[in-house]
Amino acid sequence: MAVRLADYYKLHIKRVTIVASGMLIAINATLLILFTLLGISWFALFVYILVPAILMQIFALIIILRYALEPLEMITQTLSYVSPQPTVITPPNYNQIRHERSGLKVMIQTIYDRQPNQTSDDTEGSSILDRVPCGIVMLDSNGQITRYNKNAPVVVDSNQKPSLQLLFSETNSLDNWLKTATDSKVSDEKFWPRVQDKIPGDTKRKIYDVLASYHKAGEAGVETILITLDQTSRYGEDEESVDFLSVAAHELRGPITVIRGYMDVLRSELETTLQPDQRELIERLDVSASRLSGYVNNILNVAKYDRKHLKLHLREDKLSDVYASIADDLQLRARTQARILNVTIPIDLPTVAADRTSLSEVIANLVDNAIKYSYEGGQVNVTAGIEGNYVRCWIKDSGIGIPSSVASNLFQKFYRSHRSRTTVAGTGLGLFISKAIVESHGGTIGASSTEHEGSTFSFTVPIYATVADKLAAGNNGNEGIIQTSSGWIRNHSKIGG
What we know:
- The chain is of the alpha+beta class.
- The chain is 48% helix and 18% strand.
- The protein contains 14 helices and 15 strands.
- A six-stranded mixed beta sheet has the order 9-11-12-14-13-15. The chain has a five-stranded antiparallel beta sheet with strand order 2-1-7-6-5.
- Helix 2 (42-82) packs parallel to helix 4 (104-113), helix 8 (276-306) packs across helix 13 and helix 11 packs antiparallel against helix 13 (430-440).
- The longest helix is centred in the first third of the chain and has 41 residues, at 42-82.
- Mean pLDDT is 77; it is low at 116-121, 417-427 and 483-497.
């Protein structure tokens, strides 16, 4: 049976120790016989000669072995690290001056230099992989990179350790998916669209579509293969347009506010003289102005969230009062779309930490989606209750449901399924922004769905009493309470946390 590279040094030092110990025993036995022949007493021989000699020999042996075997240990660690065999060994630190002077650094660096893009001797195979127009990354059972081609988004640190340079969402990350796959599956696949390698604003940023394939106990120690396709040219225009749109949105806010103000004046001044059809016309204009205002806020928020700057000031508020601030608008939307909107938010729920404007936008987005994706005459139910240290709000519809093929992408920016693009108007930003706002409140958002039967979206916000001290310490800023869900897609009918 072949010896694993990771085990070679331990076995070798065991062999060396046995041989050295045998030699010490032989030497001391010879001395014992020699001194006995010379007539030295056993007591004097043992106490004054053998014991001190043995102790000094052991001490000298430890020092000699450590010094003599250190290069072999470091070379073995390096070979084990770059080999395709699964291992938990970390690469040695060879950057000390003494290693440079002794030439050991050059020897180890030579090993790395002979393995620039792979950890096997199959240079011909690596050359073929480098010709593939997409990135290929291979991971072992520990999730460590064992091989990759030149188009892969991989960076190598000062210790020559490769790592994946992709910014996955924390709630839908590669690590979370791999944990689920390794714990409960024999094989699995996963697709992530629009994964960036650098934060927005970096001129060298690239955007990838990523496909992962997992097979337990795969060949040559490879369990997971990642395929990354550079889609910067496809998605880059969308991402870059956010900067332009955010500037334009700032300019649009003023006129929209004026228009909504005049609508309020017209309604109050002409209330007694308007005919029913005229009143309905003004109501429709008001709804359209409100929706346009919401789109503008979405554009501004998407730019802020991408740059991790969605900073809110949270204050004590009631969820029922937050909903009341948009209740008339939502009822009107439901009525004009021939939907029935039922709202049951108990007024005696604990107060929550909220930014009312932002949280009302979340509710409006979710209710508006439920209305749009419900059948004519269908019901949309809004309820709320206590869940641990949070208040959870549910928005349930009885509409078309969510296909399992699009479930994991719901909260991606600009994502819209083929069916929704052709049948329902929208920007593809609503759920992305809702997720951003909820997580900026320190809560989580998710959904469950059965296709053709309906969907339930829900979100949590912290009870004010549980975060009051942190908010007070931060002048009501949300930095001290932000957290992101540790959940991930557990099955195709449950999305988010």
